[in-house]
Design goal:
single chain; 118 residues; mainly beta; 7-stranded mixed β-sheet; 4-stranded antiparallel β-sheet; 54% strand; globular
């Protein structure tokens, strides 16, 4: 069974930085597209950033220029470097793995809380 475990969340002041990690197991990590999503209280889950197997990246407009997604295939780990954090970035952040046969992100981690105080 695929496991995705996020870490690195916490409480940070506005303007600060955090680095999230997503450790994957029981999956061919190097052959899997990955992404970060987030869900704020009372809101729907939204896309944050994605990275293909080849390292191509895509970002939500709200985080462009502030967040950076990366992956280390040797460690089966994905990262999200978050800089210049804003109060509106407060959410539970989830990592997700893409399933080609279903053509959607279908494996999810348990989430890590990011709280940005203003």
């Amino acid at each position: 069974q695929v496991q995705l475990v996020e870490s690195g969340g916490g409480l940070v002041q506005a303007g600060g930085s955090l680095r999230l990690s997503c450790a994957a197991s029981r999956i061919t990590f190097s052959g899997t597209a990955m992404a970060w999503f987030r869900q704020a209280p009372g809101k729907q889950r939204e896309f944050v950033a994605s990275i293909t197997t080849g390292g191509d990246t895509n970002y939500a407009d709200s985080v462009k220029g502030r967040f950076s997604i990366s992956r280390d295939n040797a460690k089966s780990t994905m990262y999200l470097q978050m800089n210049s954090l804003k109060s509106e970035d407060t959410a539970v952040y989830y990592c997700a793995a893409y399933r080609l046969e279903l053509r959607r992100y279908d494996y999810w981690g348990q989430g890590t809380q990011v709280t940005v105080s203003s």
